[in-house]
């Protein structure tokens, strides 16, 4: 774990600026998301002039794009920035470093080029959310790749941490992906649906929490800290938590509000938590 603070020890000002900027904004992001919804997915409303804070500020209609296009755009930096650093930092690359970046790279391959082609085609995302997410993913990918390829040195303890972290990452990825596709499948079949569109997902970890896909992603990035032993991965994890946790609370409350009768009359639903099984 000696690599953990190398991002700070080395005079890589650019990487440190990114890391500490993310840490600084995490607090207001985490706090604000308990009071302000990001209007996409279940929380999306086509009457954006009435609900979107940025539109109210600019006094004009900001366009939306399809969820499919949005996911491709906002997740693609995780792929292309990694490919760039593998080519650009070739003299710094070792076999172990390639193994370390592989889970990160695989996650974004799936998010950018597989997952978007399975989601509901009629969903839209406001353009400004896509732009902000793209910017975050772009600079986060730079931070992660620079940390691994330029500042990390993996010694004889590497395999112990890597194998443990990879197994844990795989479990998180399975929970994340299986939950996403289960929700997509049930929505298409309109099982337990609302107005022919949104549903109460059932089965698997949906029996315990409303957002097992977020729970799985949290496990993924917590595991990636173990895999990479880098401070940058820790920053990435904290930034994800600052978004995913309050977002899961929003979704959980949305389910309870829009399926009020079901939650009141179904004991399993009434005991369902938001993101952490049996806890919260």
Characterise the protein shown here.
By secondary structure, the protein is mainly α. 66% of the residues lie in helices and 4% in strands. It contains 13 helices and four strands. Strands 1-2 form a two-stranded antiparallel ribbon. Strands 3-4 form a two-stranded antiparallel sheet. Helix 5 (67-75) packs antiparallel against helix 7, helix 6 (77-88) packs antiparallel against helix 7 and helix 10 runs antiparallel to helix 11. The protein is globular. The chain starts with 5 loop residues before the first helix and ends in a 10-residue tail after the last helix.
List the helices and strands and how they pair.
Layout: H1 6-9, H2 13-32, H3 48-51, H4 53-58, E1 64-66, H5 67-75, H6 77-88, H7 95-113, E2 124-126, H8 127-151, H9 158-189, E3 193-194, E4 198-199, H10 212-228, H11 231-258, H12 260-265, H13 267-270
Antiparallel strand pairs: 1-2, 3-4
Question: What would you say about this model in short?
Answer:
The chain is mainly α and 280 residues long.
For the biggest sheet, the summary is: 2 strands, antiparallel
Report strand order across the widest sheet: 1-2
Shape: globular
Helix proportion: 55-70%
């Amino acid at each position: 774990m000696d690599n953990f603070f190398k991002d700070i020890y080395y005079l890589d000002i650019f990487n440190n600026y990114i890391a500490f900027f993310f840490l600084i904004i995490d607090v207001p992001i985490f706090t604000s998301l308990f009071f302000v919804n990001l209007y996409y997915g279940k929380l999306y409303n086509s009457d954006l002039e009435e609900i979107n804070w940025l539109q109210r500020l600019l006094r004009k209609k900001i366009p939306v794009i399809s969820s499919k296009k949005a996911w491709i755009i906002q997740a693609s930096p995780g792929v292309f920035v990694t490919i760039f650093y593998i080519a650009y930092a070739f003299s710094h690359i070792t076999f172990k470093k390639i193994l370390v970046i592989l889970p990160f790279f695989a996650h974004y391959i799936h998010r950018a080029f597989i997952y978007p082609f399975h989601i509901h085609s009629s969903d839209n995302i406001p353009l400004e959310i896509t732009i902000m997410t793209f910017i975050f993913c772009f600079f986060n990918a730079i931070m992660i790749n620079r940390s691994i390829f330029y500042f990390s040195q993996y010694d004889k303890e590497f395999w112990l941490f890597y194998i443990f972290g990879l197994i844990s990452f795989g479990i998180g990825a399975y929970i994340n992906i299986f939950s996403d596709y289960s929700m997509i499948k049930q929505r298409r079949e309109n099982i337990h649906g609302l107005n022919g569109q949104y549903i109460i997902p059932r089965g698997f970890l949906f029996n315990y929490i409303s957002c097992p896909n977020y729970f799985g992603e949290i496990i993924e990035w917590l595991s990636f800290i173990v895999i990479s032993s880098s401070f940058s991965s820790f920053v990435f994890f904290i930034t994800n938590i600052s978004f995913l946790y309050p977002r899961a609370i929003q979704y959980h409350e949305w389910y309870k509000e829009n399926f009020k009768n079901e939650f009141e009359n179904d004991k399993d639903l009434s005991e369902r938590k938001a993101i952490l099984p049996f806890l919260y």
